[in-house]
Amino acid sequence: MSERLTKQMREFIPILKRNGFMLARSNGSHFIFINRKTHRHITINKNLNRMVRERLIKENNLEV
User: Fold this and answer.
1) Structural domains present in the chain
2) pTM summary value
3) 23-54 confidence digits (pLDDT tens)
């Protein structure tokens, strides 16, 4: 993640880490985060916006 991230992405990464997700890989324009305990994964576009961020939090039951 050496390139510049959007503000929404910089705020979303700590939420993912608190919920047990870690960066598995980056592929094209997406980050793939995986939770090693539950084996769930979340794919996030590098140009994350607020509306998509809120949807991901709700769909994946993430604690903010």
Assistant:
1) 7-59 (3.30.920)
2) 0.86
3) 999 988 999 999 999 999 999 999 999 999 99
CB 6 within 8 A of CB 13: no
Task: Single out the residue of 44, 50, 6 nearest to residue 26, CA to CA.
Answer: 44
* Residue 34 and residue 41 in contact, taking contact as beta carbons nearer than 8 Å: yes
Range list of H helices, 1-64? 7-18, 50-59
- What are the backbone angles phi and psi of residue 62, rounded to the nearest 5°? -85, 140
Residue entry with tokens 């140009």 = 47
pLDDT at 13 over 70: yes
Closest Cα partner for 8 from 40, 16, 41? 16
